[in-house]
Amino acid sequence: MEKILQLRIIDIIPETTEAYSFVLEDIEGNDIHYKAGQFLTLIFIINNREVRRSYSISSTPGVNEKLQISVKRVHNGEISRHLIDHYSVGDIVEAIAPSGMFVLNEGSYENKDVILLAAGSGITPVISVIKELLYKRSANSVVLMYQNRSVQTTIFRSEIEKIATDFSTKFHWLDFRSSDQEDAFYRRLNNEKLEMLIPGYIKYDPAKTSFFVCGPESFMRMCQFTVTLMGFNSKQIRKEHFVIDKPPAPPLIINPQPAKVTILQQHISFETMYPKTILQSALDQYIALPYSCKGGRCSTCVATCVSGEVIMSMNDVLTEKDMKAGLILTCVGYAVTDIVLEYSTDAAGKGN
Predict the structure, then answer these.
(1) Paired strand residues for 339
(2) How many other β-carbons are positioned within 10 Å of the β-carbon of residue 179?
(3) Can you give the pLDDT of all 352 residues of the chain as single tens digits?
(4) Is 143 helix (H, G, I), strand (E, B) or coil?
(5) Which domains does the chain have, with CATH numbers?
(6) Whole-number Å distance between alpha carbons of 12 and 69
């Protein structure tokens, strides 16, 4: 069910003193299919235990020749430090196929406004989306509001500057820096400034405006609260979480019963029983389903529920449209009845 990729590191690019990009290729020369804004889940064996970490893809298919992930060193971050300090060009890493919901709709973005709100390493999936919009989707109104501490800590600064030069009439970059920005207005992006700035960058129908938000949790909450308070629909907002909280408590299910789970493509069936999630039940029976965070925030585990009823205890990535299409997160999903699930390479890449 879960295909493991063997990827060779062919280049390591220092983006700042704390952030590095790893350029990867399949060891057998196969193409790695992904969409702008998605992430790659790496698999490590640390002290005889399997550890999975997802890292956003900063390259863009059709724009960059090779897939590239970007990693920022996290204080007390077990895996980010391990990857940055101990891996070199030529080393092999294991991963599962790229996934994620932080992606664009199909089709052109001409005459549609796209506003991207990023802070710190939250720029990683955002830069991928920006390149997709401008180089491939005919977008003519793309705005990046990017919060950092300083010029030196701004990841992809030179690349953003080049994009701003190449698309000077279509791309606007608002460079917020808390420690070395001379203009006091552009030192800290907050709710008041968002309310002031956003209307000035809406050229077309506000109902068709798309927002992409990624950064620290407090920053993302501020952005989402402000944008929705301004009258935009939550369906217009895509978020990407880097910090995963502890798995949420299971929802209350009255009189739970054992349920049969059938995976269509693989002709696999197994039993699940509350209070175990669908994913945990599968893993306990040595059935390899895709996953990463186990917290309902990354969408690696997304599947389509073809029949039956599933209740989720947490959902921070699926939109109302996604759920109407039957998408569920198995890591926080509980089968109320017998269910049939379908996994699709497209299911993890649908936009809002």
Answers:
(1) 261
(2) 11
(3) 578 999 999 999 999 999 999 999 999 999 999 999 999 999 999 888 899 999 999 999 999 999 999 999 988 788 999 999 999 999 999 999 999 999 999 999 999 999 999 999 999 999 999 999 999 999 999 999 999 999 999 999 999 999 999 999 999 999 999 999 889 999 999 999 999 999 999 999 999 999 999 999 999 999 999 999 999 998 999 999 886 666 677 888 878 899 999 999 888 999 999 999 999 999 999 998 999 888 888 888 999 999 999 999 988 888 888 899 999 999 999 999 999 999 975 433 333 4
(4) strand
(5) 4-98 (2.40.30.10), 114-240 (3.40.50.80), 259-349 (3.10.20.30)
(6) 10
pTM assigned to the model = 0.86
List, in order, residues 6 or more apart from 89 with CB less than 8 Å away: 9, 10, 11, 12
Instruction: Characterize the bridge pairing of strands 339-342 and 259-263.
Output: parallel
* Token duo for residue 85: 């300090």
> Among 78, 118, 84, 80, which residue's Cα sits nearest to residue 102?
118
